[in-house]
């Protein structure tokens, strides 16, 4: 038996992942404006839908109009670098790298959750189909006598 995945899990749960926490700490160290960067790059969505499967928000996060999220980083990084003139080129470069890394870690986390929820759903479907397929297989193997 697979445990049921609760409906409506918030994306904020991913903030507890060690990879996201590390990327956030790196970003904090490189740029004091973490609140702005975090708000721009961390989507607030429901990870699971009504029946505990991947929500449409999560499934569509990297497709269609939401794909713009992937392209927003260079524009935002440029504008944040311009606002960070006193840091010098090395500091601005570190901040931009930390920001890009933070975005990549978050995108990876959301993809992994989406993949896991899809795998969970498929496994549940396969387990549910086992009794039916074993009945059919048993009938095919039964002797005609």
Helix-strand layout with pairing:
Elements (H helix, E strand, L loop, with lengths): L17 H13 L3 H8 L14 H4 L8 H15 L5 H54 L4
Helix pairs in contact: 1-5, 4-5
Please characterize this protein's 3D structure.
It is a single chain. With 145 residues, this protein is mainly α. The protein has one domain (11-141). It has helices at residues 18-30, 34-41, 56-59, 68-82, 88-141. Helix 1 packs antiparallel against helix 5 and helix 4 packs antiparallel against helix 5. It is elongated and about 70 Å long. 17% of the residues are buried. The model is unreliable at 71-87 (pLDDT under 50).
H and E order: HHHHH
- How many distinct helices? 5
Count up the domains: 1
* Measured distance between first and last alpha carbons: 37 Å
Number of strands: 0
Instruction: Give the overall form.
Output: elongated
The largest β sheet comes out as: none
Q: What percentage of residues falls in helices of 4 or more residues?
A: 55-70%
Q: Which range does the strand content fall in?
A: under 5%
Structural class: mainly alpha
CA radius of gyration is: 22 Å
Low-confidence stretches: 71-87
Average pLDDT, rounded to a whole number, is 75
Q: What are the salient characteristics of this protein?
A:
elongated; about 140 residues; about 0% strand; single chain; mainly alpha; about 65% helix
């Amino acid at each position: 038996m697979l445990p049921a995945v609760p409906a409506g899990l918030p994306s904020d749960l991913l903030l507890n992942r060690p990879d996201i926490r590390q990327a956030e700490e790196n970003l904090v160290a490189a740029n004091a404006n973490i609140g702005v960067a975090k708000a721009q790059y961390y989507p607030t969505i429901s990870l699971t839908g009504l029946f505990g499967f991947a929500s449409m928000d999560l499934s569509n996060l990297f497709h269609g109009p939401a794909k713009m999220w992937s392209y927003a980083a260079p524009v935002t990084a440029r504008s944040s670098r311009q606002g960070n003139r006193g840091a010098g080129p090395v500091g601005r470069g570190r901040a931009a790298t930390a920001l890009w890394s933070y975005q990549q870690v978050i995108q990876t986390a959301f993809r992994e959750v989406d993949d896991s929820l899809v795998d969970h759903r498929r496994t549940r479907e396969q387990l549910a189909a086992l009794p039916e397929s074993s009945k059919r297989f048993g009938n095919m193997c039964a002797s005609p006598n």
